[in-house]
Specification:
This protein is an alpha+beta fold. The protein contains 14 helices and 17 strands. The chain has helices spanning 65-73, 81-87, 111-121, 129-147, 150-162, 184-194, 210-220, 270-285, 290-297, 327-344, 348-365, 369-381, 388-395, 398-409; strands spanning 3-7, 12-18, 24-29, 36-42, 50-52, 58-60, 75-76, 79-80, 91-96, 101-107, 200-206, 230-231, 244-249, 255-261, 306-312, 315-323, 413-421.
Length: 423
């Protein structure tokens, strides 16, 4: 039965229904909006390399297989699904990250036909030895592009320095070697294991009728299949794998990425941890912060300097960096300024300003159906409630943020990745 979730403070409502198949469906009605958006996502990402199926057997799969599967699902026996979306006037896309894979489209016309296509093609894989071999070459070229991209290299090297065993340290697309071990059998195996309705989320936003969306999903998505898989991750030591990784590349300005390894929060505390960390990083390194002002005036950073917190099953870290003319000097200054912040504490007024700014940005998110649908799906796949962010942003205070400052940066487990000029 469909449930209506009201958010009076935002003047929004979200409709939810879990179908008999186990598929969780959500609809954000946006009357008057011309563009309608839909995503069909599974909780299956690049980190899910080892798992136990319903038969109790543990299986290890090659790195990059979730991303490979995402690519291959667009291919049908008589063509490519993207062309069918285009014929309907819809723009389709897909992506794989560390914990999820999503297939999506946006359109101003033929919404029902596009939604029906989305629901069906994701469930109907077509793999052959020939088309898988062809895809290996395509993905190999994609991986080589990443290896030649300094921004990708500096971040990937940082993850490899932060993590000793967790698969988050491996490129989402896998490696040039690992993709050679992916064949139709492995792809069918992973599709059967992870593309079960109970492991998936459908999210629709726009000027649509929730009852119509739920009815279409009920007709298109079959009965529940095998029981949910159990993901298996290696035990990750608390210590970082390496304190420093340097690589020379053809860059005009060097790049640096500084990572601070964090202990993953228990699932019930994960959302609060993330919201608190985003406020803390904004207070410390945001464009209006004192640290940012000092580093900018010293010529060590520019507009591309950024910071973020990312976390998932078995991993969590704060990451900051960007282009800099002097990576070693910037590192020394960041460490010194962080030590001062830990010793001195935070100004509650700075925390309050950041909290209010984050609250405003969250409210504004609902003016962009595609953005809010994307965020809602990401949270739902992780068992988190995006709407709970609003309440957290209203209740988190300076003491909460100060505690996180001490926990993350007082005795940091830090790794650094630097891409230097080749000359």
């Amino acid at each position: 039965m469909a449930m209506r979730i009201e958010v009076p403070a935002l003047r929004e409502e979200i409709w939810q229904e879990v179908l008999p198949s186990g598929l969780a469906c959500y609809v954000l009605p946006k009357p008057g909006f011309a563009t309608r958006y839909a995503s069909f996502s599974t909780r299956y990402g690049s980190c899910d390399q080892t798992f136990m199926g319903s038969d109790g057997q543990v299986r290890e799969t090659p790195a990059g297989i979730a991303h490979f599967l995402e690519h291959k699902l667009f291919e049908e026996e008589d063509g490519n699904v993207s062309e069918r979306f285009s014929a309907l006037g819809a723009m389709a896309n897909a992506y794989t990250n560390y914990g999820a894979t999503s297939y999506l489209f946006s359109t101003t016309e033929h919404f029902q036909e596009a939604l029906d296509l989305l629901l069906h093609f994701v469930q109907e894989p077509y793999f052959t030895e020939a088309n898988v071999h062809k895809e290996q070459g395509i993905i190999a070229e994609e991986l080589r592009m990443y290896l030649d991209d300094p921004r990708s290299v500096v971040f990937q090297n940082l993850l490899a320095a932060l993590y000793q065993r967790h698969p988050v340290r491996v490129e989402i697309g896998g490696t040039l070697d690992s993709i050679q071990h992916i064949g139709p059998q492995e792809l069918f195996l992973c599709h059967r294991a992870f593309y079960q309705p109970g492991n998936m989320v459908l999210m629709v936003a726009g000027d649509v009728d929730p009852a119509e969306v739920f009815g279409m999903a009920r007709r298109a998505v079959g009965a529940a299949g095998a029981a949910a898989v159990r993901r298996i991750y290696p035990e990750e030591p608390r210590a970082v794998a390496a304190e420093m990784k340097r690589q020379r590349m053809a860059v005009g300005v060097p790049l640096i990425a500084i990572g601070f390894k964090d202990d993953p929060a228990p699932s019930e505390d994960a959302l609060r941890r993330e919201v608190t960390m985003e406020i803390l990083l904004d207070v410390l390194f945001g464009s209006s912060s004192e640290i940012h002002r000092q580093l900018y005036e010293e010529g060590l950073i520019g507009q591309q300097f950024s910071s973020s917190y990312f976390s998932g099953d078995g991993y969590a870290a704060s990451v900051l960096g960007g282009p800099t003319p002097d990576p070693d000097r910037l590192l020394a200054r960041v460490e010194g300024l962080l030590a001062e912040a830990v010793a001195k504490g935070l100004d509650p007024r700075d925390v309050e300003r950041s909290r209010r700014r984050s609250l405003g940005e969250f409210v504004a998110l609902f003016n962009a159906p595609e953005a809010v649908a994307h965020a809602f799906s990401e949270y739902a796949l992780r068992g988190l409630d995006l709407m709970a962010v609003y309440d957290l942003l209203r209740t988190i205070d300076a003491d909460d943020v100060a505690q996180r400052l001490r926990e993350q940066f007082a005795l940091p487990r830090r790794s650094v990745s630097i891409v230097e000029r080749a000359d």
